[in-house]
Amino acid sequence: MTSHIETAVQQRIAAAKLKREQRRRQRAELDEARAHGLEARHAAKMARWVKESA
Predict the structure, then answer these.
(1) Cα separation of 11 and 26, whole Å?
(2) Which helix (DSSP H) or strand (DSSP E) does residue 24 occupy?
């Protein structure tokens, strides 16, 4: 039989793991969006260079 303290600690550990996983997922989404934005900026910059040099 587990005590109420052990149960509370287990709940806090589970909540921390869930929070960490949510932050990891959010970070991955932001990294993906950032990479897409950088690619778009680079493509626009290259298009301007081609337009200016032509």
Answers:
(1) 23
(2) helix 4-53
Distance (Å, whole) CA 54 – CA 27: 41
Model pLDDT for residues 1-35, shown as the tens digit of each residue: 789 999 999 999 999 999 999 999 999 999 999 99
Residue with tokens 């778009």: 40
Look up residue 3 and give its DSSP letter: -
Q: What phi, psi does 29 have (nearest 5°)?
A: -65, -45
**Residues contacting 54, CB < 8 A, separation 6+:** none
